[in-house]
Amino acid sequence: MTNTAIKQKQGRRDFLKGVGAASAAVAGATTLPGKALATVGEQKPRYGMLIDTRKCVGCHACSVSCRSENNVPMGKHRSWVEYIEKGTFPDVSLNFLPRLCNQCSEPQCVSVCPTNATYIRDDGIIVVDPDICIGCKYCIHACPYDARFLNPETGAADKCDFCVDRLAQGMEPACVASCFNKARIFGDLNDPDSGISRLIASNAVSVLRPEMGTQPNVFYIGIDYMDEHDIRFPKQYIRVTTHRDGNVRR
Ligand code: SF4
Ligand code: SF4
Ligand code: SF4
What confidence tens digit (pLDDT) does each residue in 39-67 have? Predict the structure, then answer.
């Protein structure tokens, strides 16, 4: 693709971003939690997710609904669940860790993209424009969370985008809507009165790999994450597995 062609597509993308933001503001008056979308003159929303691992039973409804909603190709995953076994019998535990793109405030995937196909929307969601993506995989290698994959059907980078098409219609992400135990909470982090903001303010929360400096906007309650290489627990049996390709350990 020539530079001119890329710039033309970027211009179209900027226009569509404006349209999308306007329609989303209208839809926000309906079913999104709290004052999810800002109106003119108000602070812009910053979308995030909170996952209460104490409520997660590893049922995979979130992963399945994501696959269906976003036409995720077989063998690829936008949303997945890790299983973490720890300890030595009889002192053992099994925990579930739902995973997805963290929609980082300082996303390494965006800074490495040579065509600006990966960018941050005004509401903080990081998305990929498949028309501009050249499939170079820079972003896939840059993400510290292994949240991205190359979609074999589009030839473009792919990942969770909080179901932006559903948000534009005033609905929550598919994984949130399908979680029967309400382990996943979605909302506006910039609104102190939103459900997610109140839960974050009143619980001990953490993010994955904070040392990477990406400032994730996916938060966890009750997380006790470690892997086989955790130097804090050199003698403890720890095993992390997932239905996802490659047994991700991030
Ligand atoms: S749907 Fe909810 S309970 Fe089931 S695996 Fe996903 S986060 Fe956990
Ligand atoms: S989790 Fe990875 S793909 Fe998602 S915003 Fe952060 S760096 Fe980018
Ligand atoms: S593969 Fe990633 S880094 Fe490369 S153009 Fe596509 S979005 Fe940008």
Answer: 445 789 999 999 999 999 999 999 999 99
Q: What percent of the chain has pLDDT over 90?
A: 64
Residue 147 lies in a domain: yes
CB of 126 closer than 6 angstroms to any ligand 3 atom:
no
Judge whether 250 lies within some domain: no
Q: Answer yes or no: is the C-beta of 49 below 6 A from any ligand 1 atom.
A: no
**Is the shortest distance between the CB of 118 and ligand 3 below 6 Å?**
yes
Can you tell me the mean pLDDT for 175-192?
A: 97
| CATH number for the domain that contains residue 10 | 3.30.70.20
DSSP string covering 25-66: HHHTTSSSSSS-S--TTSPPP-EEEEEETTT-----HHHHHH
What is the residue range of 177's domain? 3-242
* Residue 247 falls inside a structural domain: no
Q: What is the model's pTM?
A: 0.82
248, part of any domain = no
Read off the amino acid at residue 87.
Answer: G
pLDDT at 227: 63
**Most informative mutation of 62, 65, 80 for ligand 1 (most atoms within 8 A of CB):** 62
Ligand with the closest atom to the CA of 63: 1
C-beta of residue 109 within 8 angstroms of C-beta of residue 148: yes
| Minimal-distance CA residue to ligand 1 atom 4 | 59
